């Protein structure tokens, strides 16, 4: 099992719109396809920063869920254009982490 910590930079002044889109559209869509969304955060020190965490049982599961989400017609034609309007895509940072035995997330 591992987690994916995804750090996004919204376009200036668009973070509130991004959070609404994530909570009302993107997270429910991904969860409906089996994605395990662990947490979602706004950055207290960066007015345009946003972080979310997803959990995967295995690399195989991650590949399957990525395909289900990102290859879907809905993502390609409806959601991706909105995401690109709200985020600075080239500023995305994805970190994969594994919990240590004492972390409580194992």
From TrEMBL:
Pfam families: NIPSNAP (PF07978). Residues 3-97 form the NIPSNAP domain. InterPro entries: Dimeric_a/b-barrel (IPR011008), NIPSNAP (IPR012577). This is NIPSNAP family protein. It comes from Streptomyces aureoversilis.
